[in-house]
Structure of Protein-L-isoaspartate O-methyltransferase:
Amino acid sequence: MTNLSNLDLARANMIKQQIRTSNVTDDEVISVLSAVRREEFVPLADKALAFAELRIPLVEPAEEALRNGHCMLEPLIEARILQELRLKPTDKVLEVGAGSGYMAALLAQRAQRVITLELHPQLVELARANLQRAGVTNVEVRKADGCKGLPGEAPFDVIVLSGSVAEVPAALLSQLKIGGRLSAIVGFDPVMRGTLITRTGESTYTTAQPWDTVAPRLQNFPEPARFQF
């Protein structure tokens, strides 16, 4: 059986070999990744797999979970998102796609409040249980369709889409404060880009796409035609 010291070593190796070598060097991000025990959010017997650079299915059957996006993203993707967002202690955050609750736990380490939305009932309960067991008290898990955001709670300092979309809906962008940031993975397989959109005014935004990746789709988001003739 893997003991705690083995898991601590595996976490340290993940940060050293996967995260730091891929230009994630922000000390605050490294601190958060060290503090939150990723293995506690992984529903696997072999907890060491929590630190591998792979997607982890969260429900059965595993193949269907991976296909439908019911999985944890790779650690490097999560680390890159955290680094780009540059969270502040006063930030109010909306996450779409709670999954196991791990990303919400990371966000909660740096933000004041996190609301995370999840459609799959089993994952709603999993995320709530994981967060409670980890002692995270500033995250609220809601069963809801996140494609339209949460207008009743807007505006947000930060919105995180924990999965990929073909495009970011305007309804979500409108729920950002001026100066707020939205992180998403945008595009079509095999070319998607980590995207950071910052609201600079009432109707103005800037967009940066600093890294490439691939992630499963979030459910119910618009899927426009890939090609136009």
Summary: The beta strands are 56-57, 71-72, 92-96, 113-118, 139-143, 156-165, 176-188, 191-199, 205-213. The mean pLDDT is 94.
